[in-house]
Amino acid sequence: MFDVHCHILPGIDDGSRDVEMSLEMLRRETEQDIEGVVFTPHFYAAQNDPETFLRRRDRALKELEASLNELPKIPKYTVGSEVHYFRGMSRADGLEDLCIGNSDYILIEMPFRDWQPVFVDEIEEISTVLGLKVIIAHIERYFDQDKKLVKRIIENPNFLIQCNAEFFLEKKTASKAVKFLKKGKIDLLGSDSHNLDDRKPNLAEALAIIEKYDKKGALDHINRMSRSIFDQAI
Ligand SMILES: [Fe+2]
Asked: How far lies 8's CA from each of 49, 50, 66, 107, 173, in Å?
């Protein structure tokens, strides 16, 4: 199992506050048998340009790496970012530098305000014009958006759909999550973990539910997709 969305890098966003917390989060990933982790700190174009963000991300990574020898075992890892939607992003300089490792996969967080068709147009252009492979972060958070637009995202064969573990773990969404899984709609999973309490690394808990209901190889598909991202990224 791979965690392709988390905020484990220290002191760069609203995720892990320091190296000590990051190490404990990583220790929990290992405990849960997570084979690979993608560190995906938030990227907000209004706060940083890509160059500044990458410098900050690099610093956070180096800080963490300097202490990794304190852990007996670590999952393999690579860095990416969770790029929050912004108008004109498909034409923005340096967008491709925000991809996961050396790959051309880019994790995108759609806006939480009411979706307009132009939002989806923009994301489609990242794929068709820039040629990047778009991963839509935690699609389950957008199920109350305009149905037609959500459908355009989910059914676009060029997009990968990522769900958070909590989709399976929250009582009110669990049955929907299982249905979505059974339809083969989930390409990738993430813990989207930010800390050690209310948003902790929790993929193994979701995995227990997934294994119970997966009869058609949905999990194999998820693992295959994750592995191919890692193979390109590292
Ligand atoms: Fe996130």
From this structure: 21, 19, 15, 16, 25
